């Protein structure tokens, strides 16, 4: 457990000490809130769907967690390039502990960023329907952060160059985000799009966040949490296997 804690703490300290990363990571959510929130609010109201800011804020929080968690894999590439990964792999601890510590660290950083974006959403005028539901929302924040942090670790274990990682991330992350229902309702989609969105794991994370914060559910809470937990376990097993095979 000591190795897991040290690696978790390292990821946390690296994030806290990088003020540029903290500030820049909040710029994109602010842009989405301002551009989409202001631009689509009149259309949303005219369609009788209420406040678009209330609808989009949980999706922006989910986007922040997704990007932060997945790009945790980039840190592994840097550690591989500068030799730190080799030092940790030759340490007298199991690779499963190393992978777990890195994944928990990445997930914690993503949860912090999601919390900061939630505070920004509150400044923009977003209001949860019930403040007591915030702890429930953080259950979904944790599940989404763990899921995509494990995915980032798995991909970072396979890819060795930064350019390849960024291409794979852009190929995966943007479709995962845009097909999750973070920016638009999924109620009246065609059959093909409905199948695709149902295969997107972030769909259930965004639905859980939106349901917990504004009581707007597409699926049931148990279904959202169950699917996220199952996929998270699958990615953790996959990440642990790929990390155990890593060579530096």
Automatic annotation (TrEMBL):
Asked if the keyword Cell membrane belongs to this entry, the reply reads: yes
- For the keyword Cell membrane, the answer is yes
Instruction: Give the membrane topology, semicolon-separated if more than one.
Output: Multi-pass membrane protein
Question: What InterPro entries does the annotation carry?
Answer: ABC2_TM, ABC2_TM_bact-type, ABC_2_transport, Nod_factor_ABC_transporter
Pfam families in the cross-refs: ABC2_membrane (PF01061)
Q: Where is the signal peptide?
A: none
List, alphabetically, the PROSITE patterns matched. ABC_TM2 (PS51012)
Write out the annotated subcellular location. Answer: Cell membrane; Membrane
Q: What is its main location?
A: membrane
Domain ABC transmembrane type-2 stretches = 20-246
Could you list this entry's UniProt keywords, alphabetically sorted.
Cell membrane, Membrane, Transmembrane, Transmembrane helix, Transport
What protein does this entry describe? Transport permease protein
Q: Which GO terms describe its cellular component?
A: ATP-binding cassette (ABC) transporter complex
């Amino acid at each position: 457990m000591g190795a897991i804690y040290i690696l978790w703490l390292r990821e946390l300290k690296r994030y806290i000490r990088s003020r540029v990363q903290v500030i820049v990571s909040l710029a994109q959510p602010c842009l989405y809130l301002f551009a989409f929130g202001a631009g689509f609010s009149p259309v949303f109201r005219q369609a009788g769907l209420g406040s678009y800011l209330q609808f989009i804020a949980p999706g922006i929080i989910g986007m922040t967690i997704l990007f932060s968690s997945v790009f945790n894999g980039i840190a592994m590439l840097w550690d591989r390039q500068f030799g730190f990964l080799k030092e940790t792999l030759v340490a007298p601890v199991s690779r499963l502990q190393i992978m777990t510590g890195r994944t928990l660290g990445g997930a914690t950083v993503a949860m912090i960023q999601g919390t900061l974006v939630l505070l920004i959403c509150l400044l923009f005028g977003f209001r949860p329907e019930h403040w007591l539901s915030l702890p429930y929302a953080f259950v979904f924040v944790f599940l989404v952060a763990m899921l995509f942090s494990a995915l980032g670790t798995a991909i970072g274990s396979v890819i060795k160059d930064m350019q390849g990682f960024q291409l794979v991330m852009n190929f995966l992350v943007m479709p995962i985000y845009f097909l999750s229902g973070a920016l638009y309702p999924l109620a009246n989609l065609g059959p093909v799009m409905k199948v695709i969105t149902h295969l997107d794991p972030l769909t259930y994370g965004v639905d859980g966040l939106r349901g917990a914060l504004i009581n707007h559910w597409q699926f049931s809470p148990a279904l959202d949490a169950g699917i996220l937990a199952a996929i998270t376990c699958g990615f953790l097993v996959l990440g642990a296997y790929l990390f155990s095979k890593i060579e530096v």
